[in-house]
Amino acid sequence: MIIKAAIPLIGEYGAAVTTSKVARAAGIGEATIFRVFADKEELLDACVAEALRPDHVMRELGDIPLDQPLADRLTEAFEALQAHMARIGAVVGSLHTSGYRRREGAADGEARGVGREESMARIRAALAELLEPDGDRLRLPAEQVAALFLGMLFTRPRQGDTPELTPRELVDVFLHGASA
Question: What crossing angle do the helices spanning 2-13 and 40-52 adopt, rounded to 10°?
């Protein structure tokens, strides 16, 4: 409850968020925060770890119907993953911009049970499951296609003055190449 109340405030105030603001948002007394967390930095680290957790995106990926056409499944997956990255960016970016640096030993998500590598492996496996119904039509194993799909998502270029491609357009290029 404390972390859920703190995350939007961190997006707004960065590391300048006060524990009294977090307590008000959570509907608790400020002292309660310090019964759960040793200090504000531990709370901020826990919020980063929570933002990095893949649980929300895993639920969204798991809810995508496997009987849809592959392009539809991948478009929904792309949108879910984009939202996941935006949630991470809101917390991590705001803290970084406000000058906050995580403490030595505060590993990404590991304090809350999921490290970065495990998180990416779980997401890649969920994507591979979405690809499986069309596995016989893929040039590569579903796991490799899932890794390539994630690579495209994480490295897609910004086009400057030209409009950004929609998720559907990117999926179309991914599935069919750039040739007309």
Answer: 90
As a CATH number, domain 2-157+164-174 is 1.10.357.10
Rg (CA), the chain: 19
**Tens-place pLDDT, residues 89-101:** 889 999 999 988 8
Q: Which two tokens stand for residue 134?
A: 């069309």
Domain boundaries, the chain: 2-157+164-174
64 close to 76: Cβ distance less than 8 angstroms: yes
Burial track 9-43 (b if 16+ CB lie within 10 A, e otherwise): bbbebbbebebebbbebbebeeeebeeebeebebb
- Which pTM value belongs to this model? 0.79
